[in-house]
Design goal:
The chain is 31% helix and 31% strand. The protein is α/β, with parallel strands linked by helices and 255 residues long. It has 2 domains: 137 residues, 3-Layer(aba) Sandwich (Rossmann fold), CATH 3.40.50; 103 residues, LytTr DNA-binding domain (OB fold (Dihydrolipoamide Acetyltransferase, E2P)). The chain starts with 6 loop residues before the first strand and ends in a 12-residue tail after the last strand.
Length: 255
């Protein structure tokens, strides 16, 4: 009889003790094998893409990139079955009960962990990727209702990824099917439409001034009238951008 390969698990938590606790609880389970442990969301994204684990134990509150940021970066269609570790209150937990494969409240109880592992086993024995994708999409929608605005963006650069703080983006320009995010000393290209980018940015911080430009209000130095109702926006770094008359009305409340 051919031996069944153990389920490959990835553990992501910024607290060393929390990672060790999950690994300790997994150790007696012969049908699970920990293939990676990650200290923050950026590491988790890299490891998930490289190792393609069978299950991910994912902390929600992590620096650099939180659990939901990991889920967004991988995408619900490609995210493995995920068990979230959380200290959220009961109201927020409802989203996990409805949409996630399972969740664990910290500190993690061995009996609760055992039930979560049984759910992973059951899912793998009768898996439906479409169902999992819908669950994770529902989770993102549920937890994103209060604040869907990005605070950090994971951007691919050569053979690795970098974390971009949204507050450091001075302005964004369209480049075909991409957007280029300009920071003080560098820029990053990301495959996304301007409309999609704008929908994820906080309108209190970012405004579209042209079909090909979005600006961070904190980095505007001056705005000058120009021809045919257009304006010239002078950024603090000296960049000159055109604000078309189509978008000028959204600045009225700032006057």
């Amino acid at each position: 009889m051919t031996a069944v390969a153990p389920l490959r698990a990835l553990v992501a938590d910024d607290e060393t003790y929390a990672r060790q606790r999950i690994i300790q609880l997994l150790a007696p389970e012969k049908d699970f094998e920990v293939v990676s442990e990650c200290a923050h969301g950026g590491e988790a994204v890299e490891a998930i893409r490289k190792l393609k684990p069978d299950v991910v134990f994912l902390d929600i509150q992590m620096p650099v990139l939180d659990g939901f940021g990991v889920l967004e970066a991988i995408g619900p269609a490609k995210m493995p079955p995920t068990i979230f570790a959380t200290a959220f209150d009961q109201h927020a937990i409802h989203a996990f009960e409805v949409n996630a494969l399972d969740y664990l409240l910290k500190p993690i109880d061995p009996e609760r962990m055992a039930k979560a592992l049984d759910r992973v086993r059951a899912w793998h024995s009768a898996s439906n990727p479409a169902d999992l994708r819908m669950q994770l999409e529902g989770l993102l929608a549920a937890v994103g209702q209060e604040d869907a605005h990005l605070t950090r963006i994971l951007v691919k650069q050569d053979d690795h990824h970098v974390i971009v703080k949204v507050s450091d983006i001075q302005w964004v320009e369209a480049e075909d099917n991409y957007v280029r995010m300009h920071m003080e000393t560098t820029s990053h290209l990301m495959r996304m439409s301007m409309a999609a980018m704008l929908s994820r940015l906080d309108p209190r911080q970012f405004r579209r001034i042209h079909r090909s430009s979005i600006v961070n209000l904190d980095f505007i130095r001056e705005i000058h009238p120009w021809f045919s109702g257009d304006h010239v926006v002078m950024m603090k770094d000296g960049t000159r951008l055109t604000m078309s008359r189509t978008y000028r009305d959204q600045f009225k409340e700032l006057a």
